Amino acid sequence: MNLEQVLSQTPHFQYIHERLFTSGQPSAIQLQHIKEYGISTVINIALSTSPDHLAHEDQICLDLGLNYIQLPILWDMPNPEQAIFALDTINFLVQEQLVWIHCSDNYRVSVLMYLYRKFYMNIEQDIAHEQLEQVWQPNDTWTGLMHSVALQLQGRKATHELQQSMIQHNDSY
User: Fold this and answer.
1) Which of 35, 74, 113, 117 is deepest in the core (most CB within 10 A)?
2) Phi and psi of 95, rounded to 5°?
């Protein structure tokens, strides 16, 4: 089995694009394979008290030479600002490096990736939603988070478009 096939065996693995991969909680051996593949940063959005949490994941990543970032998002009460911060962080990091983001089952991450696909990659909503549902059907709490974050990101996009329009308008004089 080649390394890509090995990585795809990680629980709920998803390939987002050539610099971004997601999954549920990888094992220590899977983290080693992640490093061998060329990933430089692992982001964990689960809490250390989550089911299937890998004890000492931070130390394992450091020992392997991986950057490790923990951006926990609560399961029962996800915070829209934390979700946007995570999305902006991911978008910044993937400009220069390969990133692996995970939580315990890839449920939290799949919601973030739905938003990432829709607002950062400009993928059509139906396609982004279909890819989300390959992992799970979000419950009411996470559907609410999706809507809240989507409204904020739509507002951000509209503001940016207005600013660009004003700049172009001023340049024409």
Assistant:
1) 113
2) -65, -30
Q: Minimal CA–CA distance to 37: which of 97, 103, 90, 88? A: 97
CA distances 85 to 26, 29, 82, 108, 156, Å, are 23, 29, 5, 14, 13
Strands 20-23 and 14-17 come out as antiparallel
Reported pTM: 0.93
3 state SS of 93: helix
Beta strands in 18-160 (DSSP E): 20-23, 41-44, 67-70, 99-102
Q: How many whole angstroms separate alpha carbon 74 and alpha carbon 82?
A: 9
CA angle at 98 for the pair 94 and 101, rounded to the nearest 5°:
85
Sketch out the chain's domains with CATH numbers.
3-171 (3.90.190.10)
Residue 107 near residue 117, CB atoms below 8 Å: no
Token reading at 141? 């709490």
In this predicted structure, the answer to whether residue 123 has a pLDDT above a threshold of 80 is yes
